[in-house]
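Posting for a labmate who doesn't have an account.
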Amino acid sequence: MQITTRHFNGDLPTHYRTEPDEEPEYEEEEGGEDEEALPWDTEDVELDSDDEETSPLELFLAINGLDEYLPYFSKEDVDLEALMLLTDDDLKHMGLPLGPRRKLAGAVKQRQYALDMPGGMRPSLI
């Protein structure tokens, strides 16, 4: 007997047992048909609180791996629009180290380019 796992259209895997030259016999997951099978224990999963909405600045920094510097911008009441106007001297005055300043400058440049040159969607490298 062999156990086979198949994924259908990106859904959760379906497990079934087969004997050579036989049709698959589908196994019923624990909890019956009403309960969806999850590949993790629901007790171990912590959900983020929906109380606070993520700001565009917070999202921008997180996407670029710079979310640890959010307090620097919060302290100065800088939002995403203001960030786009900051100079390297401004960031330096705020206390950001050289590495993050360079990364931020590159990310701001890419965002500005995307805003200036809207176009069709292209496949990403991810």
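Reply:
Got it, the structure tokens are right above this. The domain at 56-116 is CATH 1.10.150.50 (DNA polymerase; domain 1).
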